[in-house]
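Much of our argument rests on the idea that a fold can be written as discrete symbols. In the encoding step, the backbone of a single protein was reduced to a row of integers, each denoting a local shape. We regard such an encoding as a compact summary of how the chain folds. The record that follows shows the chain in one-letter code together with its fold in token form:
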Amino acid sequence: MSRIGNLPVPISDKVEFSINADNIATFKGEKGTNTLRIHPNISIEKSENELIIKRSDDQKSNRALHGLFRALINNAVVGVSEGYTKKLEIIGVGFRASISGDVLELNLGYSHPIFFVPPEGISMEVDTKSGKNPILIISGVDKEMVGQVSAKIRSFRKPEPYKGKGIRYLGEQVRRKAGKSAAK
């Protein structure tokens, strides 16, 4: 029995839900719109202010899809009502980030700057006024896309284990290694 799949998805009055004949669910809310293609063996019923996800039978694959689609639908509902954000911290001497128009420019110690154009639906801003390390704030409606963009930006310069320089998630702990020790 799927414990997650049987939980109803709470939906507020501000979120509009509709599903068409092609099994494409559309969620509209304050932050934006999100669509999700639903598997044919999964059905959605709307009661008063919650969505109930049901599966066609108890085959193993359908039981797995039941919990998966409940989680995806919940992520879509939360995304259009509250949105998702990820914060990246840029640590290193001379490492800078700036946004001009829609393009993110990163100077990460390479011989060239890195330019990154975010996909549609993702907004970015750089917080440099704190006087410490610049913080890059990535926000959007789609949880998967926000995570993918932040992972891509982090991959430009992952935190290294000796000095901890690089791009890391805010609050991420980086295991440090001891450097060379002098011979006695």
Helices lie at 60-81, 143-154. The first strand starts at residue 9 and ends at 10.
